[in-house]
Structure formats: structure tokens, C-alpha cells
Amino acid sequence: MMNKRLERILAKLDATYGTEKIIYLEYNTPWQLLFATILSAQCTDARVNMVTRDLYKKYDSLEKFADASLSEMEKDIHSIGFYHNKAKNLIACARKLLTDFGGEVPSSLDDLLTLPGVGRKTANVIRGNIFNIPSIVVDTHVKRITKKLGFTESDDPVKIEFELMEILPKDHWIVWNTDLITLGRTICIARREKCDICFLREDCPSAKV
């Protein structure tokens, strides 16, 4: 049975943000979302979208990514943090998708985790948004706000993911991420929370009011 406080929080999130899945990264194909998510690690979605608009015109197929020059790919994504590793991973990931998965993005968590540059967060983004498989994505917003709301004491994203799986209804697994991203960008901003205007303040043990 769901915790009453959590039930109120989910109802308020639903009422404020709706229940539709929202993805802030721009893409047209599953592999484009996969690559954009790889690029988004420790980088803003806005920056990634600026880069991928040109990147996906230049490399409009997995084959072009797989055949790309590493040095040229680094130049193409140099404005994104950790571009050396990310360039290498994009090329290697494209090659593995072509050789091992027939050019299709797999839906299995185990298969996704074999792809270069893909961890649980990226895999769950794909599973939740492309394949509609209930998945919990733990990014910096989810980690920070879940802790503030008192639903975890951990800083380990994997532990938080499994803790949330225990308490959240499956139909809220993927939207917990998008709701907390929106909340974290607009109200519960790191180091300058606007607790006085937060619609969750009455149910948040960390509220400064």
C-alpha cells in the first residue's frame, strides 16, 4: 500500500505537470535518442540539442557514425563536456548496434548495458521512452529531490532506483524523472530552492518555510 504522503505528492505532481511522458532531448529515431542521452551526461539538454541538430544532419545513419573519424567526431561535439570519451563511445556504439543488433536499438536492459557509453540511466531512458517499459531514471534532479523529499538517504543512483521501484506505482516510474527535472529547474533549484512557492512544501521534510 502506498505511503499517504507519497500519494499526496504524486497527486500534486500529476495536477501540476500532467502524466504525459516528456523528453527534452530532440530525436527522430531510437538511436538518435540513445546517442543524445549518451551526450547528455553532465551536460544540459539545451546544449546537446544545439549540437545534435547539426550532428544528425552530417551523420544521418548508424553507418555514417560507425565510419566516422574519431578526430572529426571530437570536433563535431567539442562544445559538450567529456567530448573525447563521448566521441569514442558514439562511434563504438554505432558499430556494436550494426554488428550485434542488426542496426536496431535493443529493449533489453542487459543488451543495452553492453553498448559503449550506456549505463543504467541511459538504458532506462530508452526503455521508458522508446519501448514504454516502466523504468526509473535517476539523474541529478531525481537524486537530489528524492533525497529532499525523504524517500532515500542514499547518493548511489542504482540504490535510489531500486528504492523508488519499491514505493512508486509503475505508471509513475518514468514520469517521476520528468516531473522532478521540471521541479528542479523551476522551483527546487539546487542551492536556491524556492520553498515558499513550492506546491510540495507541506509534504516535504526539507522545506524551508
TrEMBL record:
<dbReference type="GO" id="GO:0140078">
    <property type="term" value="F:class I DNA-(apurinic or apyrimidinic site) endonuclease activity"/>
</dbReference>
<dbReference type="InterPro" id="IPR011257">
    <property type="entry name" value="DNA_glycosylase"/>
</dbReference>
<dbReference type="GO" id="GO:0006285">
    <property type="term" value="P:base-excision repair, AP site formation"/>
</dbReference>
<protein>
    <recommendedName>
        <fullName>Endonuclease III</fullName>
        <ecNumber>4.2.99.18</ecNumber>
    </recommendedName>
</protein>
<comment type="function">
    <text>DNA repair enzyme that has both DNA N-glycosylase activity and AP-lyase activity. The DNA N-glycosylase activity releases various damaged pyrimidines from DNA by cleaving the N-glycosidic bond, leaving an AP (apurinic/apyrimidinic) site. The AP-lyase activity cleaves the phosphodiester bond 3' to the AP site by a beta-elimination, leaving a 3'-terminal unsaturated sugar and a product with a terminal 5'-phosphate.</text>
</comment>
<feature type="binding site">
    <location>
        <position position="198"/>
    </location>
    <ligand>
        <name>[4Fe-4S] cluster</name>
    </ligand>
</feature>
<dbReference type="InterPro" id="IPR000445">
    <property type="entry name" value="HhH_motif"/>
</dbReference>
<comment type="similarity">
    <text>Belongs to the Nth/MutY family.</text>
</comment>
<dbReference type="InterPro" id="IPR023170">
    <property type="entry name" value="HhH_base_excis_C"/>
</dbReference>
<keyword id="KW-0255">Endonuclease</keyword>
<keyword id="KW-0456">Lyase</keyword>
<feature type="binding site">
    <location>
        <position position="195"/>
    </location>
    <ligand>
        <name>[4Fe-4S] cluster</name>
    </ligand>
</feature>
<keyword id="KW-0326">Glycosidase</keyword>
<keyword id="KW-0004">4Fe-4S</keyword>
<keyword id="KW-0227">DNA damage</keyword>
<keyword id="KW-0408">Iron</keyword>
<keyword id="KW-0411">Iron-sulfur</keyword>
<dbReference type="GO" id="GO:0019104">
    <property type="term" value="F:DNA N-glycosylase activity"/>
</dbReference>
<feature type="binding site">
    <location>
        <position position="188"/>
    </location>
    <ligand>
        <name>[4Fe-4S] cluster</name>
    </ligand>
</feature>
<keyword id="KW-0378">Hydrolase</keyword>
<dbReference type="InterPro" id="IPR005759">
    <property type="entry name" value="Nth"/>
</dbReference>
<feature type="binding site">
    <location>
        <position position="204"/>
    </location>
    <ligand>
        <name>[4Fe-4S] cluster</name>
    </ligand>
</feature>
<keyword id="KW-0540">Nuclease</keyword>
<dbReference type="GO" id="GO:0051539">
    <property type="term" value="F:4 iron, 4 sulfur cluster binding"/>
</dbReference>
<dbReference type="Pfam" id="PF00633">
    <property type="entry name" value="HHH"/>
</dbReference>
<keyword id="KW-0234">DNA repair</keyword>
<dbReference type="InterPro" id="IPR003265">
    <property type="entry name" value="HhH-GPD_domain"/>
</dbReference>
<dbReference type="Pfam" id="PF00730">
    <property type="entry name" value="HhH-GPD"/>
</dbReference>
<dbReference type="GO" id="GO:0046872">
    <property type="term" value="F:metal ion binding"/>
</dbReference>
<keyword id="KW-0238">DNA-binding</keyword>
<dbReference type="InterPro" id="IPR003651">
    <property type="entry name" value="Endonuclease3_FeS-loop_motif"/>
</dbReference>
<dbReference type="GO" id="GO:0003677">
    <property type="term" value="F:DNA binding"/>
</dbReference>
<keyword id="KW-0479">Metal-binding</keyword>
<dbReference type="Pfam" id="PF10576">
    <property type="entry name" value="EndIII_4Fe-2S"/>
</dbReference>
